[in-house]
Amino acid sequence: MSTTSLDLMFPRELISLEVSAQLPSDLQIRPLASTDYKRGHLDVLSVLSIVNDLGEVAWVNQFHAMRANPNAYFSIVILDKASDKIVGVGTVFIERKFLRGLGSVGHIEDIAVDKSQQGKKLGLRIIQALTHISESSGCYKTILNCNDANIPFYQKCGYVKKENEMAKYAPERVHSAPKL
Q1: Cα separation, 95 vs 73, whole angstroms
Q2: Which residues have C-beta within 8 Å of that of residue 59, sequence separation ≥ 6?
Q3: Residue 56 pLDDT
Q4: DSSP alpha helices (H): ranges in the chain?
Q5: Percent of the chain topping pLDDT 90
Q6: Cα dist. 105→130, 151, 158 in Å?
Q7: DSSP state, residue 33
């Protein structure tokens, strides 16, 4: 399917042409589309963590809620052209700050590559594309959290280990559709 007929999260032109050109010819990188639930978006994310699939309607509602915040959420996918299935995903969201002259910070999240496609530098291409979006949006830095085992990978992507992450998880509750 042509990207021109897709309902995309953000304009295709924000993705680096240099990164696109470095992908194998059978793969395509593009913004997340409103129809990507059917292309296995959640299946790819499941390599990261537990995915609670609340159904296509809830997924589409989340897509539209994220897109309703222009210049905030940039989710991308790598698509296998032959199968029309997603094989890689990632997101950068832009946090506006009062610091650094009202600067912005890009937060990279949810980098995942289908197990059958790992080792082909797709993760690197996703990080490069998201970093490009962050920097092109004027962010003074782009940050991400990862486990210790992934530090060498992100260092190869040009990131440096800095400070520590802290987390406090909310008490577990029955999973239902988020309140939008």
Answers
A1: 10
A2: 37, 41, 42, 53
A3: 97
A4: 17-21, 41-45, 56-67, 99-102, 122-136, 151-156
A5: 86
A6: 12, 20, 16
A7: B
